[in-house]
Amino acid sequence: RIRGMQATLARRLIQTRLTVQRLMMALDSGIETMEQAVPCQCDPRTTPTVFLDLDGTLVSSDMHVAALTFVRNIPNIPQRIGKLLQLPIVIVAAGITSLFSEAAAGRILAFWALRDITVAQVEAIAETALLDYFSTRTRPSLLQAIEDHKSQGRVVALLTGNMVPFVRPFARSLGLEVIGTEAHTCQVDDITVCTGRVMGEFCIGNVKRAVIDRHRCGEQCDLVFWGYGNGTNDIPFLSAVHYPFAVTPSSTLLKFALKASWNLQFQKIL
User: Cα–Cα distance between 248 and 176 in angstroms, integer?
Assistant: First the structure.
């Protein structure tokens, strides 16, 4: 009799364990279904969905000339002359470095232009000389595209490798957000001064793509993204948007765009 009771108890324990396992599996399945069913949490009224590269795309210039324009307008004459005397070395160093890393070349330019310049001076030059520099080189067809997007209620942002302090007044004048390379600063006798270093990663290549990914709330994100770029370094972020536009593309970008059937309506514009 004791053996019979032991066998019955063993069978009931096995049945109970199987029942618990089935319940756990059902619960896990239900949780996964609930997670997958979570709707998109992004707000299209505040989340950027249109991203434009700046240099060579929205404006017909490049980062090097913008940095030179900045240096030429430094109000402190000894600082300005000293930096201009360094220019030949900077051109050679940045040119050679760019063959291996555009980000490293950009860091050289940032160090040369911004080191030991106060934030107040940077802001003043950006509000005047750089605002005029960018504004006079803006491509009208891209300005129209921006207005078309804004009229549809989309949030438009500059996604640039350029220094954010250089670009912010220009972006503000167009009603755009700006995402770019941030300048590192420090306090010297209660004055905020640029160190010439950058904070975090230089905003080009895969760093730009990571920006697009961060603006998605997940796999269930309902937002539709647009992107405009002109160079090889823009391919990663253009590949991450739904509607990529190649603007006056480099030969490498053009080949990639043709193969991927990207929009080329801005292939040849002034």
Answer: 22
| Dist. CA 177–CA 171, nearest whole Å | 6
Instruction: Please provide the distance, in angstroms rounded to a whole number, between the alpha carbons at the two ends of the chain.
Output: 97
248 vs 73: CA distance, rounded Å: 30
Amino acid at 38: V
Whose CA is closest to 248, among 56, 96, 18, 81?
Answer: 56
DSSP string, 83-99: HHHHHHHHHHHHHHHHT
Residue 171's nearest CA partner among 232, 126, 213 is: 126
Task: List the one residue out of 115, 80, 111 whose CA is nearest residue 97.
Answer: 111
Q: Is residue 58 classed as helix, strand or coil in its secondary structure?
A: coil
Residue for token pair 């942002």:
157
Cα dihedral 181→223→233→262 (10° resolution)? -150
Task: Count CB atoms within 10 A of the CB of residue 257.
Answer: 20
Q: Which of the 8 DSSP states describes residue 232?
A: G
Write out the two tokens for 129.
Answer: 């000389």
Report, as an integer, the average pLDDT of 111-135: 96
* CA–CA gap between residue 67 and residue 130 (Å, rounded): 9
Q: Which pLDDT does position 67 carry in this prediction?
A: 95
How many CB atoms are closer than 10 A to CB 43?
10
pLDDT tens for each residue of 190-215: 899 999 999 999 999 999 999 988 88
